[in-house]
Amino acid sequence: MSGTILETRGLTKAFGGLVALNDVDISVEAGKITAIIGPNGAGKTTFFNTIAGAYRPTSGDIIFNGETMKRTPWYAKAIPPRLRQKIFAERLQQYIPAHRRTTLGIARTFQNVLLFGSMTALENIMAGQHPRSRYGFFSAALKLPRARREEERISLNAMKYLNMVGLGTYAGQNALSLPLGQQKLLAIARALATEPQLLLLDEPGAGLNTLEKRELSELIHRIKELGTSIILVEHDMPLVMGIAEWIIVLDSGRKIAEGTASQIQKDERVIAAYLGEETD
Amino acid sequence: MLARLISKWPYLIMAVLLIVLILLPFDWFPGKYTTLMIFIGISTMVTVGLCLLMGYTGQVSLGQAAFFGCGAYISGVFSKYYSVNPWLAMLIAAAVTGVFAYVIGYPILRLRGNYLALATLAIGVIVWIILRNEGPGGPDGFSGIPALSIGGFAFDTSFKRYFLVWGFCLATLFISQNIVRSRSGRALRAIHGSEAAAESIGINVAQFKVKIFVLSAVYASLAGSLFAHHLRHISPQTFDAMASVKLVVMAVIGGLASVWGAIFGAGTTRLLSDEILVRYHVLSGWDIPIYGLILVLVMIFMPQGLFVALRSASYWLRYNWRELPSITKGIYERKVLRLRSGGVQS
Questions:
Q1: CB-CB under 8 Å, A53 with B202
Q2: How far is CA B211 from CA A84, B28, B150, B216, in A?
Q3: Residue B142: which CATH number?
């Protein structure tokens, strides 16, 4: 795979007066592991939420696989473009909602894991197969052959992803009874079960010990080999420097640098951002 | 032998219950519970819908009696005043109620927690007022609703209607059970777990909430139609806000996370309200505080519902029944000791 999988153009997100993302232009190469780093409050998680669709951008565009995430609703189309721009500016602009983006191929994990507590480990992953399976209330209610077939396929696939993160033996356990390290792996497996082209990992290493972190970076490499592009937000520098092929640095909502690990380590602005010095 | 019997308890209990359910309405069966059981069956249908909505999806509805009332009134009015076939009237009622639930569910299901409870409560009150002021017969309701019939076979006695109602009720239960164990069921539980996470795995949260709201409304509407064609007289007071609260009590007692608990919840609540409280006038007028008390106690001590609590107690018994004599003996001995020591001291 080559080319760009994700691109943002002038992406801005403001919460009232606080501008969490300010005119961010990035492009992420397909099939690579890209890390987003930056000091606390740099806007990393906001960036993730905006890409995954949890937040609506204030302005700017997100382009996934050459397709814009912008949608003009029918009532906005009724107004001539120039007039619309004059009266409403960006306010009528809509973006594809989060669940549709998952279907398109963007999956994510959360900083606070967010597994489904009323389900077993396997069921959590089966739930992740939702966008890749098709049968509704009706066939479910009557247990039509289609429902059975799909259900069988879903559970087989789910088992595959569960084994991939090495949790096959815990299939029948309640998801929240697992230790944090395994919960994090389970959350990654759940995201993988949506069969994404782009996987967003929000602080996958937080709260893990050294051994678990090593396993995690191995897992991330294996996911990459499946042809999935990965963007991760991470605080743990050794982990980031070890696995990321491209690093983007955000500071107070702006992109201040990007490059390979060695370039970033030498970059003066990055050092300044982390140590709090003036650049000039 | 005994051990094997006990390990098969759940099936045994199910089988016995099913046989009792079939034999119950016959004249020679001890006790006259046919009418009560019809009401239990009807309430169960509404409660199952509430279980799906509240227990699995985590969305509260305090206006379920409104849909129940819609089903009863639409079915009654069409079959009585427009001489529509009662079955067709029932279908029309279910369709109209479903559309109604969709139209109101779409905006109000964006609300959460207490706000959603209040909004649904308001819908319930509004529907009740409309039925009372605009429905035929006003606050007294109307009678003369025709009975259901298939070909020449009319469901004209309680005995026949008993089987009709329970047929519907068991069908609802099976359908709901199938839904719970499917892709859609997982989606519903995912929404209950975390809406953000559910969105992140491609579940259209808003749409699923509305779908399950409509399904529960259709269940309630079908139950309402059965109710109207059973009693053949309906009045708006059956569908007031208190009725909605009662339905929530049934769902909570039955255990929100269990479809089959709905029978249990509807059964206990109906038994309490229709039999015990009415037969022994001691507590007449006290049903509202009693429901409140039950709701509070169940929520504090058995948040999973009485049914689930009893079920886990039976599991406990299954694995510990051998030790049971020694446990009871221990309790007994401690009691005797305490009594004796008390006796010595006094």
A1: no
A2: 34, 44, 31, 9
A3: 1.10.3470
In chain A the domains, ranked by start, together with CATH numbers, are: 1-105+197-280 (3.40.50.300), 117-195 (no CATH)
Q: What angle do CA B177, B24, B267 make, to 5 degrees?
A: 50
Q: Does B118 touch chain A (CB under 8 A)?
A: no
Q: Is the CB of A194 less than 8 angstroms away from the CB of B203?
A: no
Q: Does the beta carbon of A146 lie under 8 angstroms from any beta carbon of chain B? A: no
In a domain, B309, yes or no: no
For residue B199, the model assigns a pLDDT of 93
B148 touching chain A per CB within 8 A: no
Q: What's the structural domain count of chain B?
A: 1
> Which residues of B, range 56-95, sit inside 8 Å of A by Cβ?
none
Q: How far is CA A219 from CA A103, A173, A179, A184, A244, in A?
A: 23, 22, 18, 12, 13
3-class SS at B42? helix
Which chain A residues are Cβ-neighbours of B58 within 8 angstroms?
A: none
**B60 touches B116 (CB < 8 A):** yes
Q: Which residues of A56-92 are buried (b: 16+ CB within 10 A; e: fewer)?
A: ebbebebbbeeeebeeeeeeeeeeeeeebeeeeeeee
A168 DSSP 8-state letter: G
Least CB-CB distance to A99: which of B185, B192, B202? B202
> Which among B179, B201, B205 is the nearest to A140, CB-wise?
B179
pLDDT digits (tens, 9 = 90+) for B324-334: 777 777 777 77
Cα–Cα distance between B346 and B339 in angstroms, integer?
A: 11
Q: In the structure encoding, which two tokens stand for residue A227, read together?
A: 């042809």
The Cα A70–Cα A57 span in angstroms is: 10
A44 has a chain B CB within 8 A of its CB: no
Q: Which residues pair with A24 in a beta bridge?
A: A11
Is residue B75 within 8 A of residue B139, CB to CB? The reply is no
Enumerate residues 6+ apart whose C-beta is below 8 A from B280: none
* Residue B193 contacts A where some CB pair is shorter than 8 Å: yes
From B182, B183, B193, residue closest to A117, measured CB to CB: B193
For the segment A85-138, what is each residue's pLDDT rounded down to a tens digit?
Answer: 888 877 788 899 999 999 999 999 998 889 998 899 999 999 999 999 888 888
For residue B324, being part of any structural domain is answered with: no
In a domain, B331, yes or no: no
Token readout for A54 is: 């949890």
CA distance B131 to B238: 11
pTM score: 0.88
What is the C-alpha separation between B147 and B18, in angstroms, rounded?
Answer: 26
Establish how many alpha carbons lie within 13 A of residue A149's alpha carbon, considering only the half-sphere containing its beta carbon.
Answer: 6
Identify whether the C-beta of residue A106 lies closer than 8 Å to the C-beta of residue A146.
no
Phi and psi dihedrals of A232, rounded to 5? -130, 145
This model of the complex carries an ipTM of 0.90
pLDDT higher than threshold 80 for residue B125 = yes
Question: Treating both helix axes as pointing N-terminal to C-terminal, what angle do B86-108 and B113-134 enclose, rounded to 10 degrees?
Answer: 140
d(CA A212, CA A214): 5
Q: ∠A185-A191-A193 over CA atoms, to 5°?
A: 105
B194 has a chain A CB within 8 A of its CB: yes
Nearest chain B residue to A105 by CA distance is: B202
Q: Is A239 in a helix, a strand, or coil?
A: helix
Q: Domain residues for B162?
A: 23-304
Any domain includes B317? no
